[in-house]
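Dear Dr. L.,

I hope this message finds you well. Following up on our conversation about the binding site, I have prepared a predicted three-dimensional model of the protein together with PRP. For your records, I am including the exact sequence and ligand specification that went into the calculation, followed by the structure tokens. Please feel free to forward this to your student if that is useful.
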Amino acid sequence: MAYILTGTALSTDLATIRAKDAPIDVFRTAVHRIGLHLASATLNALPSRSVNVATPLETTTCSVIDGHVVLVPILRAGMGILDPFIALCPQASVGFIGLKRNEETLEPHEYYRNLPPSDPATTFIVLDPMLATGGSMSATLSMLRPLPHQRLMAACLIAAPEGIEIIEREHPDVALFCAAQDRELNSLGYIVPGLGDAGDRLFGTL
Ligand code: PRP
Ligand code: URA
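The resulting structure of the complex is given below.
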């Protein structure tokens, strides 16, 4: 199931990151702010449990995130939205999947995998700014599926309809949070209108 975020503060920052002439510092800080919206929506959807907390005045019951959260940025570009998720969930563990899309076949090639231990109460949240064909996200969710976990979630900045359809078809149990859904993929597999190559814009490799 895909959830597309809305809001004026969010759309203002989306305008900033789409602009082809945005300098790298402006691009990065806007990606960070959008990441905070995305992290808020995703983490607020997690189940909670009650705990007793002693305030300076009395003991009260509070709701806290239930279970262990493992954030999984897809290298490289997923690193661009890791910090906002850690800011809102500082107790999370972090695992890494390195994937590079072959620009001719559009198939993802795995070059790195380093995941922390998980357990039956773990929520994995996969992070990637761009959901284009959906191949990278789907492959990552399939790698995580055999590991002990309670739920799989995913978050991206910009999604193509084609990518959302693949995730909903291949991973119907996954809650997918997107800051924007764009029109389509072009013939080269880029999201349009999109923002271009997220990794290149985040890491200055244009
Ligand atoms: C980009 C992006 C996604 C992937 C999306 O990464 O960050 O991981 O492409 O495309 P898909 O939905 O068609 O699989 P890329 O492979 O260019 O690597 P990078 O993050 O190192 O730039
Ligand atoms: N990867 C990107 O970084 N951008 C796209 O538009 C598609 C895949």
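In brief: The pocket of PRP (ligand 1) is lined by residues 74, 76-77, 99-101, 106, 108, 128-137, 163, 189, 198-199 (CB under 6 Å).

With kind regards,
A. P.
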